[in-house]
Amino acid sequence: MTKGEKDLYRQAAEVLASRKNAVALTGAGISVESGIPAFRGAQGMWERFDPAEYATIGAFLKSPEKVWEMLSEMIDVLVRAVPNPAHACLAELEAMGVLRSVITQNVDGLHQAAGSRKVIEYHGNPSELVCIRCWKRFPSREKIGEGVPPRCACGRILKPDIVFFGEPIPWIAQEYSETEARECSVLLVVGTSAQVMPASDIPRIAKEHGAFIVEINPEETSLTAKITDIHLQGRASLAMERLMETLRNGTA
Ligand code: NAD
Ligand code: ZN
């Protein structure tokens, strides 16, 4: 690490330690090192299943069988994934009383698996399936075990309880996230390009209410030049581990 980089980690650690009132906003990038490909710059399954074609509510309503080809492959990837050190560091920050919550756009459950307790799942999670005709809910594992695409007793193909493009955010998640954004004094933005609305509003809301913005991403994003105070450029696991080490020892 260069001296400049060390200084950035030191500054970020000092702000976290002194304010002790941080919130994390995470996106697909934090789970890339757990083997789940992000949509953008993607490899693997998203080359075959274009999210613009498969991940919209319109596509699900029109041809749910086709969308379930993507969903069953995605669920296979998710069930095999395990948390990486970046998820573990966020759980540790919560246990230390530095982080008050994690707002995640991910649907992989890896924050909870790593031990985070206060997790706002902005885009839902696929552990339940819902019938969009009679609103019955079913545990995914059981129903998928009976065959794909899984069906309700009424015959309708079930929808995983995740937010497709074109669907609104569950209002509790949205309200709660906005409150957290207004009340935090540091926002850690990890592995999100902040291009998907309305999650991309969270950093702006936090900034307008006085939060210090620390961004962790190997790339620059639309936030970096405009609202980020410190950009720790690198993979989530490495950057989070360095940040934790700096926080513990005062050195990186
Ligand atoms: P995104 O818009 O959040 O973009 C991914 C970001 O992660 C990019 O900025 C990229 O530079 C960064 N990144 C890549 N590798 C990284 C690493 N090792 N460490 C840190 N950052 C890294 O996400 P998207 O893929 O465009 O997805 C859009 C929506 O779909 C979001 O809601 C997203 O969470 C969801 N999605 C979720 C999962 C999951 O649950 N794991 C996977 C794919 C997509
Ligand atoms: Zn039904």
How would you summarize what this structure contains?
By secondary structure, this protein is an alpha/beta fold. Helices cover 42% and strands 16% of the residues. The site of zinc ion has 7 residues, from loops.
What does this structure look like?
- The protein has 252 residues and is of the alpha/beta class.
- The chain has a domain at 1-36 and 81-123 and 169-252: Rossmann fold (3-Layer(aba) Sandwich), CATH 3.40.50.1220.
- Helix content is 42%, strand content 16%.
- It contains 11 helices and 9 strands.
- The strands form 2 sheets. The chain has a 6-stranded parallel β-sheet with strand order 3-2-1-7-8-9, with helices on both faces. Strands 5-4-6 form a 3-stranded antiparallel β-sheet.
- Helix 1 (3-19) crosses helix 11 (236-249) and helix 6 runs parallel beside helix 11 (236-249).
- The N and C termini lie close together (8 Å).
- 40% of the residues are buried.
- It binds nicotinamide-adenine-dinucleotide and zinc ion.
- Nicotinamide-adenine-dinucleotide is lined by residues 27-33, 36, 38-40, 105-108, 123, 191-193, 195-196, 217-219, 221, 235-236.
- Residues 131, 133-134, 136, 152, 154, 156 line the site of zinc ion (ZN).
CATH architecture of the domain at 1-36 and 81-123 and 169-252: 3-Layer(aba) Sandwich
Mean pLDDT: 95
Number of strands: 9
Query: Please, how many helices?
Result: 11
Q: What is the fold named in CATH at topology level of the domain at 1-36 and 81-123 and 169-252?
A: Rossmann fold
Q: Give the class-level CATH name of the domain at 1-36 and 81-123 and 169-252.
A: Alpha Beta
The helix fraction, in percent, is 40-55%
Helices and strands, in order, run as HEHHHHHEHEEEHEHEHEEH
CATH homology superfamily name of the domain at 1-36 and 81-123 and 169-252: TPP-binding domain
Portion in strands = 15-25%
The profile of the biggest β sheet is: 6 strands, parallel
Structural class: alpha/beta
Q: What sort of overall outline do the alpha carbons produce when their principal axes are compared?
A: elongated
Ends: how far apart? 8 Å
Regions with pLDDT < 50 over 5+ consecutive residues? none
| Spatial arrangement of strands, main beta sheet | 3-2-1-7-8-9
What are the bound molecules? nicotinamide-adenine-dinucleotide, zinc ion
Radius of gyration: 19 Å
